[in-house]
Design a protein that fits this description.
single chain, 109 residues, mainly alpha, 0% strand, elongated
């Protein structure tokens, strides 16, 4: 999902660019911020799930990220990357597509 999402989300970003309006550009920028948050979060959880130990060297066991918390965080980020409602990824896509449909209904072929 992490590798696929970069290609798919580039196409989603182009929807706002193709609209050619200020609303399309705004929607693209909002979507880029949401996408950056989703990607940084998902790639930030990967070391926890991969068994990396460098992050465990913090001050004692109370600073260790628990595996179930990492799994829940990864689930939320993956659902968001997939665009499942009510996650931020769905809201970003909804915003982007609604800006595109506004342009399509205003006479653009």
């Amino acid at each position: 999902m992490l590798a696929y999402s970069s290609i798919a989300h580039a196409g989603y970003i182009l929807i706002g660019v193709v609209a050619g309006t200020s609303r399309g550009v705004t929607a693209t920028l909002v979507y880029l911020m949401i996408y950056a948050f989703m990607q940084l979060g998902a790639f930030g959880v990967v070391p926890c799930c991969a068994g990396a130990t460098w992050w465990r060297r913090a001050e004692g066991p109370e600073r260790v990220v628990r595996p179930h918390r990492a799994a829940v965080a990864m689930l939320i980020f993956m659902l968001s990357l997939g665009g499942i409602p009510p996650t931020a990824g769905f809201m970003g896509k909804f915003w982007l597509f609604s800006r595109r449909s506004t342009r399509a209904t205003s006479g653009w072929p």
